[in-house]
Amino acid sequence: MSALKIKKGSTKHSAYNLRPDFSDVIETHTLAVLVDNEAGVLARVIGLFSGRGYNIDSLTVAEIDHTGHTSRITIVTTGTPQVIEQIKAQLGRIVPVHEVHDLSVEGPSVERELALLKVAGLGDKRVEALRLADIFRANVVDSTLESFVFEITGTSDKIDAFAELMGPLGLIEVARTGVAALSRGQ
Amino acid sequence: MVVQALRDQGVDVVFGYPGGAVLPIYDEIFQQNDIRHVLVRHEQGAVHAAEGYARSTGKPGVVIVTSGPGATNAVTGITDALMDSIPLVVLSGQVPTFMIGNDAFQEADTVGITRACTKHNWLVKDTANLSGTIHEAFHVATTGRPGPVLIDIPKDVQFASSTYTPPQKARTSHYQPPVKGDMDSIKELVEAIEKAKKPIIYTGGGVINSGPAASLLLRELVDSTNFPVTSTLMGLGAYPGTGKNWLGMLGMHGLYEANMAMHDCDLMINIGARFDDRITGLVSAFSPNSKKAHIDIDPSSVNKVIRVDIPIIGDVGHVLEDILKIWKSRGRKTDKEGLQGWWTKIEEWKKIDCLSFKQTGSVIKPQYALHRLEELTRDHDRYICTEVGQHQMWAAQYLTFNDPNRWMTSGGLGTMGYGLPASVGVQMAHPEALVINVAGEASWLMNMQEMGTAVQFRLPVKQFIMNNERLGMVRQWQELLHGERYSQSWSEALPDFVKLAEAFGCKGIKVDNPDDLDEAIKEMLAYDGPVILDCLVEKHENCFPMIPSGEPHNKMLLGDAKTKDAIGTSGAVLV
Ligand SMILES: Cc1ncc(C[n+]2csc(CCOP(=O)(O)OP(=O)(O)O)c2C)c(N)n1
Ligand SMILES: [Mg+2]
């Protein structure tokens, strides 16, 4: 099947190129969307997902070019290949959207998320939390006699694993940034 | 500044309604004569009128409404235009910038409310950006898949002065959807055209939107390949209704031969249509054995509902030109033998004569009313609008459309109350033409105040009301799938339409006998001014053929079908 033209600079090849047919398998894709940082642009993107019943697993946004006023929105979403393809085409239709990249099909990419976790505890639990933090290369960014705030960066899976381990050790609060992602190489 | 920008965009008429938040714009309008302002009676009417204007001219329609209730009243019309891809530029007034967010008098979050029903919208906070934004708005509304856009302009921004940016100097937009289709895909389609034994071309509103050239190219493709052609409700007129390859409209109330050919074909070429659910019926059983090609300017229309084998993203006109070029250069090949067999089959389906009806007795059959309307008006320079319901489907079935831009109807949204204001917009654009609104009595009442607009602006629109004293389409569904329990689907306490016409200052005619029908239509045509023709028709007539919800194309109900239990319980949940 030939390429679906989505938007200039966007993913050239449809996900269909990789598959013989529509499948019902739910896939997770990470999309990078470059937009004009104008009023309401995030509402348009979020409104698209809620209005059409798509899923958002994670969403991050920040201006990446302060002179050109461009923002990069990173969205982790799930759906069948047909739905993912629709999401990309629908995103491409939004007027202030310049590019839509599907990092999950465009080649290898790196994904990172940052999280802050507050863990309160005394004695052995406190020591164990610190030891695990070391294994996960989490930093202590705040400490009292009864608590730590850990800062951890990694894939979402790694943060999930760390948070799960901290649970029984006195985890009381978590803040996560959502995923930021870039394709590898040039 | 606003009027200057509109003038530079070639606008000659705007439809609107004033209010506190747009007074500075109205003051500008007062002091010039280039742009005519049509004062409607309700903002929804302004938007539908602009749609009628746009659809019948190919130019964008322009609307001006005030803040708050003015903007919210426009929402239905804007949504209608979005669903049917009609280019509109809506200018709304807003409370001054320093009052936004304070629940000021007549403040509404207009860009928030209309975000989901516009192609794009803007809140202009600085007069320096106003003219540039207006130019950008026209570009966005008319480029790619057309649609409505809205510019919300706070009152202080309207008052302040700044330097005017002419269209040539406006920032070039990054919004430039591609119009040329992918050549490899086009070649693939040409190969399929050469091999097809049972092809069908299925066209939609995209052919009309692409412009008159696209319709000419379509005619060339159809006539030179001898392929059969059908169309959605929105695409009527792209290929002439009197053309020899025309199968009639397809879909839920489409013709038997068109739907059967869609079901049995081996190559389906969708040109500017979107596999809407009124068209496909049961998706899993939709045209099971065909190779499908889809030409559309909007990538999100492709593979949304039906998986296609040959997607071609581009403007219909450009793509058709390339298809023809390549097909001709390869020797204009088709499988003539295969086609002959296919046409034989199609002729058999045509023999069913699914639109046949018998006018007997003293009550006018709606089909007969349209049949006579067609006979008596087909030689006129004619534009048809409709409301929504059975009469709309009958109009699509029994009237003939030989040219694009002649048929204005609310397809995607199905908005009752569309037709009368749309006819006002069409007549504004074509003052000398015959503009008829084929209406149902219930729909017509929804925006009947626009009769005042027609009278004020001396627009001789003909309101052909097929009065069955029923919400006919609702009644039909209740008969078919709710055990004939006619809940709230009749029109009681209807006005006397003749007296109503007189009250508005126009002409009213009433007819209830088939023998008097021709005379009544002629009287309507002869009158130099707006007319309301109250045509009393059979109350319990059903609109056939019909593909019941949840059924495939080959499970059509025809006129004499037993209607009870025609729709399964799974179909009943569908609309
Ligand atoms: C604004 C709006 N409300 C409700 C409906 C649902 N609806 C579709 S057709 C119909 C009945 C229309 O009656 P009428 O205009 O008399 O036309 P008929 O079907 O009788 O020809 C209704 C209520 C609609 N399409 N639009
Ligand atoms: Mg009716």
UniProtKB/TrEMBL annotation, chain A:
It comes from the Bacteria. One of its GO terms (cellular component) is cytosol. GO terms for biological process: isoleucine biosynthetic process; L-valine biosynthetic process. Gene3D superfamilies: 3.30.70.260, ACT-like. Chain A, domain 2. Residues 30-105 form the ACT domain. Pfam families: ACT_AHAS_ss, ALS_ss_C. GO terms for molecular function: acetolactate synthase activity; acetolactate synthase regulator activity. InterPro entries: Acetalactate_synth_ssu (IPR004789), Acetolactate_synth/TF_NikR_C (IPR027271), Acetolactate_synth_ssu_C (IPR019455), ACT-like_dom_sf (IPR045865), ACT_dom (IPR002912), AHAS_ACT (IPR039557), AHAS_small-like_ACT (IPR054480). Pathway: Amino-acid biosynthesis; L-valine biosynthesis; L-valine from pyruvate: step 1/4; Amino-acid biosynthesis; L-isoleucine biosynthesis; L-isoleucine from 2-oxobutanoate: step 1/4. Keywords: Amino-acid biosynthesis, Branched-chain amino acid biosynthesis, Transferase. Its EC number is 2.2.1.6. It catalyses: 2 pyruvate + H(+) = (2S)-2-acetolactate + CO2. Dimer of large and small chains. Belongs to the acetolactate synthase small subunit family. PANTHER family: ACETOLACTATE SYNTHASE SMALL SUBUNIT, ACETOLACTATE SYNTHASE SMALL SUBUNIT 1, CHLOROPLASTIC. Catalyzes the conversion of 2 pyruvate molecules into acetolactate in the first common step of the biosynthetic pathway of the branched-amino acids such as leucine, isoleucine, and valine. This is Acetolactate synthase small subunit.
